[in-house]
Design a protein that fits this description.
By secondary structure, this protein is α/β, with parallel strands linked by helices. It has 12 helices and 19 strands. The protein has helices spanning about 30-35, 40-45, 80-90, 110-115, 185-200, 225-240, 250-255, 275, 290-305, 330-340, 410, 420-430; strands at about 15, 50, 55, 70-75, 95-100, 145, 155, 205-210, 245, 260-265, 310, 345-350, 440-445, 455-460, 460-470, 475-480, 485-490, 500, 505-510.
């Protein structure tokens, strides 16, 4: 792991899906200037870092995760100059900006791939992964076949239109499988460095890296991919030592060794993240069980040797909205958890006001079931919820049709709103080092079915107990010498007779 920039210790991230955040030119699609316009809102919320989903030129078959030019902002979002202006204005307010880097594949419309398809050998022939014969498909992978005069099948990473870039094979076992040190694999790696160099020099503060653990193939233990990222981290440490790297990997022991500053616990994989927020009976819905999550979380911490950050997001562009499963005051308790755990918190745009998953939408730009989590941000009760002044039918994705849909303007004036609770929680987090990103954690109660989740955060002698009880039962705990309550949700705990009684549906943070 590279040197951790100081600002990461207090970082609270806000994820922005650019096409759905704020439209300033009334074409129904959000843009970069819209993000710049709303920096004051993000700052007032308490977030000091933004992750922007892909904003590069693309045919948008996968909402921008199919890049056709890494060096150019998609015209629908504005210009490179608009993005540089965003960097500049964000830095003035103390906000850092991370871009979404998609290194594993491109669009099949990328000029590199058009050259790679040609039968004649050229600079880009080996930029992608091809077999030697059209009749041989890459075993274990989907592929493109019969699309050009080149004799071979091309491996794809995700959708059919996303051919995989070539970083080599850790253990080549076919003639067509190139090693990590092959000329084509080295050229791909160096081009990714060039892309990073380009945007970092423009003012970007780092990258969230899509599918970071999948680059080198035939790499079951990830040793090749770890080595690849260590090489890239070395380049960054030399030229851009403050650059932040965040991985979509889901295995913190590997990603942090690879040089990333943090990794996510995600809705896929072994993390049991869904047990908390997204299942039939989620823990924060009041009837679930958090104990397997706690077990896996502690395993991840131990494997990563407590280096780097393990982050737990409120949601993201690939998940159903938090509000689909967690409603009312229980959503406030979910945020009390998210904003009191170690690692950098991530808030997906709109989750702070309880934006709903919009059911029954036709897929937009490869969203499919994810489309309902990507609807326009709801700023106020005016036309198009304040997202766009354009025609309603021009909106990138339809708005939540509910007349009582939540919006920022209404919640700002309601002292009991979810938005104001989130603002309060971020403020409390920032007031105590023990609650910040590097504070240690010790679980007192693991949230087994019917029980609360209780843990102690500590840093340099400061100790804070966090107790979260989404259940409908009271819970007695030993009085842990509570000195001062610093946050309460619902009823205050009863601290009499040497016991502490945690009321149903309540939570508190206290100095001990």
């Amino acid at each position: 792991m590279g040197r951790r920039p100081d600002w990461l210790e207090e970082a609270v991230f806000y994820e922005i899906y650019p096409q759905s955040f704020k439209d300033t030119d009334n074409d129904g699609i959000g843009n970069i200037r819209g993000i710049t316009e709303k920096l004051s809102y993000i700052k007032e919320l308490g977030c000091n870092a933004i992750w922007i989903n892909p904003c590069f030129e693309s045919p948008f078959g996968d909402a921008g995760y199919d890049v056709s030019d890494y060096y150019r902002v998609a015209p629908r979002y504005g210009s490179n100059e608009d993005l540089e202006q965003l960097f500049e204005e964000a830095h003035k307010t103390g906000i850092h900006i991370l871009l979404d880097l998609v290194p594993g594949h491109t669009s099949w419309e990328h000029p590199w791939f058009k050259e790679s398809q040609k039968a004649e050998k050229n600079e880009y022939t080996d930029r992608y992964i091809w077999t030697d014969s059209i009749w041989e498909s890459p075993e274990g992978y989907a592929s493109l076949r019969g699309i050009s005069d080149r004799d071979g099948s091309c491996l794809v990473n995700f959708f059919t239109h996303q051919p995989a870039l070539n970083y080599g094979f850790y253990k080549p076992d076919r003639l067509w499988q190139q090693s990590m040190d092959s000329e084509g694999a080295r050229a791909t790696r160096e081009e990714i460095k060039n892309i990073m160099r380009f945007w970092l020099s423009k003012g970007c503060d780092g990258f969230r890296v899509d599918m970071a653990g999948s680059l080198v193939k035939n790499d079951e233990e990830s040793r090749g991919t770890i080595a690849l990222w260590q090489d890239i981290r070395g380049f960054l440490d030399k030229e851009f030592p403050e650059a932040v790297l965040i991985s979509e990997w889901g295995e913190p022991d590997k990603s942090i060794e690879a040089g990333f500053h943090m990794d996510f616990l995600l809705h896929f994989g072994p993390s049991h993240y869904n047990d908390l927020f997204r299942c039939d009976d989620p823990f924060f819905g009041g009837k679930g069980d958090a104990s397997e999550f706690v077990k896996k979380y502690l395993e991840s911490c131990a494997k990563a040797d407590n280096k780097g950050y393990i982050c737990i997001p409120s949601g993201n562009h690939d998940m159903d909205r938090l509000a689909k499963y967690i409603k009312g005051d229980r959503a406030k308790m979910a945020f009390a958890f998210l904003l009191s755990m170690p690692g950098a918190p991530y808030i997906y745009y709109g989750d702070e006001i309880g934006m709903r998953y919009v059911e029954g939408l036709t897929s937009v730009e490869g969203g499919y079931n994810r489309t309902g989590s990507r609807s326009p941000m709801q700023w106020n009760s005016e036309k198009n919820a304040g997202f766009s002044g354009g025609d309603e039918n021009s909106l990138y994705i339809p708005l939540d049709p509910d007349k009582d849909r939540p919006d920022v303007e209404k919640q700002l004036t309601d002292p009991g709103s979810l938005l104001n609770e989130v603002k309060k929680l971020i403020s409390v987090r920032r007031s105590y080092r023990a609650l910040m990103n590097s504070g240690e954690i010790k679980f007192v109660c693991d949230g087994e079915e019917g029980k609360p989740l209780i843990y102690i955060r500590s840093y340099d002698g400061e100790r804070i107990i966090v107790a979260l009880n989404p259940t409908d039962r009271e819970y007695k705990m030993e009085n842990t010498d509570v000195k001062e309550l610093i946050y309460v949700l619902g009823d205050e705990p009863d601290m009499t007779d040497g016991k502490l009684l945690l009321k149903p549906g309540s939570a508190f943070f206290a100095i001990i």
